[in-house]
């Protein structure tokens, strides 16, 4: 059954002169790109790709920091009936080469800074003047795509091995956009996007903004000073990103005090848990703003939870009530539905599968996607994230979810952020170690942190070692890099 094309999200009846993107990347930032210009650039890219005679379903990769041409290229690739493959440019060169080979990329769009990361011999065009010469101006009728036909490959971070290519369909992307857009009129919003477009968090929001005829302020990459400057200068109404990004900009006290936040009406964080301390700090800074903690996965999209059908207020540490268009269940270790267990879900955005990985099947026999995330459900039906099933470790026969311990530690008045990782132990099997970022002007001792844990949690959860650090390292998706912290813990404990 034919469907619309996920590259054709810009409503034809909308005001073409309205600004779609305030682009803070590229060679001449800032640039204001209208919806008409974005649409024309997507068509021009599609026409140029069609001229290269890449067969339908062929993969075209993008290796670049955020910029307007990135968005236009994603749309143009899909309009041409090809598959867009945004690639994480922070991966090592050998991982980038693996991804381009794994997806059999026939062409690459890149920026000048990342051109050198490409393997020899692969055709590529660099954003800027070369991209403008490559494109073919003119109208283009988007290819009518079949139901479940691939539109995007998004490769996972590969923290536990080589990245996996998540195959996302045109119909799934369109379902996500339509479902999110029906909740409210977003056309007056100006979103600030600093998360990378190779990540679902930023890409899905950009698609939503295009369909809703909303504007975005697009940073090339996240840095706390640039983020705050964009808020002050470009007056976004809606802040987006992952929680560590928000925690990092809050630490820039002098810049925060000079920043005018009066335009900000909403903050939406996703892709990682939001601590109670971070939520509290944001509410103090912007008491008038609506602040939400969202949940989603690359494999099933960002539409999972929503408001309670009886109008009950969502508890501060809950992700919400199951969205009315999404089927959810929690399954315990015995394989039974329960009030606590691994979240399984079914919706219109489910991935087609993992590219080139027939050995991986995360679907149940009745079509639910097994997320690997452990949740708890309360009597009202609100859901609470406990932790990743594969982050869980066993210490002396007790299951420990790092997120549970981190939330407890962040209740300490001197703690801004906490991250808990396991280290091997001859007696316990594994035991928890904590890395702590202190609040400004505070200097908690490791002993005080350990005693707080013993006073507020089961003894087996208390961190056997506590390390104070200035900031938590981030992985390429701006999430906390747990693998790096585990390696750092081993290194520190091995020192004489």
Could you describe the 3D structure shown?
With 496 residues, the chain is α/β, with parallel strands linked by helices. It has three domains: 2-221, Rossmann fold; 305-388, Luciferase, Domain 3 (Luciferase, domain 3, Roll); 393-494, 2-Layer Sandwich (GMP Synthetase, Chain A, domain 3). It is built from 13 helices and 27 strands. Strands 3-2-12-11-13-14-15 form a seven-stranded mixed beta sheet, sandwiched between helices. A four-stranded parallel beta sheet has the order 5-4-6-7, with helices on both faces. The N and C termini lie far apart (66 Å).
Number of domains: 3
Distance between the termini: 66 Å
Q: Count the strands?
A: 27
**Helix content estimate:** 25-40%
**Low-pLDDT residue intervals, each spanning 5 or more residues:** none
Mean pLDDT: 91
- Tell me the major beta sheet: 7 strands, mixed
* Shape estimate: globular
**CATH secondary-structure class of the largest domain:** Alpha Beta
Hey, roughly how much beta strand do the residues contain? 25-35%
- Number of helices in the DSSP assignment: 13
Q: CATH superfamily of the largest domain, called what?
A: ANL, N-terminal domain
Topology:
Elements: E1 2-3, E2 19-23, E3 31-34, H1 35-51, E4 59-63, H2 68-79, E5 83-86, H3 93-102, E6 105-110, E7 124-126, H4 129-134, E8 145-146, E9 150-155, E10 165-169, H5 170-181, E11 190-193, H6 200-212, E12 215-218, H7 224-234, E13 238-241, H8 243-250, H9 253-258, E14 266-269, H10 276-285, E15 290-293, E16 305-306, E17 321-322, E18 327-331, E19 340-346, E20 353-354, E21 369-377, E22 383-388, E23 393-395, E24 398-400, H11 402-409, E25 415-425, E26 429-438, H12 446-456, E27 465-468, H13 482-494
Parallel strand pairs: 2-12, 4-5, 4-6, 6-7, 11-12, 11-13, 13-14, 14-15, 26-27
Antiparallel strand pairs: 1-8, 2-3, 9-10, 10-20, 16-17, 18-19, 19-21, 21-22, 23-24, 25-26
Helix pairs in contact: 1-2, 5-6, 7-8
């Amino acid at each position: 059954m034919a469907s619309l094309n996920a590259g054709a999200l810009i409503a034809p009846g909308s005001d073409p002169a309205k600004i779609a993107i305030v682009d803070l990347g590229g060679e001449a930032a800032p640039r204001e790109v209208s919806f008409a210009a974005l649409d024309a650039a997507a068509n021009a890219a599609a026409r140029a790709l069609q001229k290269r005679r890449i067969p339908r379903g062929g993969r075209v990769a993008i290796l670049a920091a955020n910029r307007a041409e990135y968005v236009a290229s994603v749309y143009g690739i899909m309009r041409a009936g090809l598959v867009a493959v945004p690639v994480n440019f922070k991966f090592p060169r050998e991982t980038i080469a693996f991804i381009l080979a794994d997806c059999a990329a026939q062409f690459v769009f890149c920026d000048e800074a990342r051109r050198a990361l490409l393997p020899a011999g692969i055709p590529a065009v660099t954003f800027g003047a070369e991209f403008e010469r490559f494109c073919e101006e003119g109208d283009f009728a988007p290819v009518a795509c079949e139901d479940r036909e691939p539109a995007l490959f998004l490769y996972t971070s590969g923290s536990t091995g080589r990245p996996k290519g998540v195959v996302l369909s045109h119909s799934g992307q369109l379902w996500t956009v339509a479902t999110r857009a029906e909740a409210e009129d977003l056309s007056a919003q100006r979103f600030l996007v600093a998360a990378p477009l190779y990540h679902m968090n930023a890409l899905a929001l950009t698609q939503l903004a295009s369909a809703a005829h909303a504007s975005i302020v697009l940073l090339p990459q996240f840095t706390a000073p640039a983020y705050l400057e964009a808020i002050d200068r470009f007056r976004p109404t809606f802040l987006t990103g992952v929680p560590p990004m928000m925690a990092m900009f809050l630490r820039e006290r002098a810049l925060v005090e000079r920043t005018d936040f009066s335009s900000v009406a909403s903050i939406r964080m996703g892709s990682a848990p939001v601590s109670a301390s971070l939520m509290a700090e944001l509410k103090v800074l912007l008491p008038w703003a609506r602040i939400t903690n969202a949940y989603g996965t690359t494999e099933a999209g960002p539409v999972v939870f929503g408001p309670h059908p009886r109008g009950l207020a969502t508890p501060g540490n809950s992700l919400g009530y199951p969205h009315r268009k999404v089927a959810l269940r929690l399954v315990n270790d015995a394989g039974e539905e329960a009030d606590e267990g691994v979240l399984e879900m079914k919706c219109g955005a489910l991935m087609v599968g993992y590219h080139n990985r027939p050995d991986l099947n995360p679907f149940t026999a009745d079509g639910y996607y097994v997320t690997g995330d452990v949740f708890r459900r309360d009597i009202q039906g609100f859901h609470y994230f406990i932790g990743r099933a594969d982050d869980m470790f066993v210490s002396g026969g007790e299951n420990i979810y790092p997120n549970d311990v981190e939330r407890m530690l962040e209740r300490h008045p001197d703690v801004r952020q906490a991250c808990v990782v396991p280290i091997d132990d001859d007696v316990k099997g594994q035991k928890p170690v904590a890395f702590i970022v202190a609040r400004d002007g505070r200097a908690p001792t490791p002993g005080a942190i350990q005693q707080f844990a013993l006073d507020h949690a089961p003894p087996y959860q208390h961190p056997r070692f506590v390390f104070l650090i200035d900031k938590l390292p981030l992985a390429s998706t701006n999430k906390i890099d747990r693998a790096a912290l585990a390696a750092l813990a081993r290194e520190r404990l091995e020192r004489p």
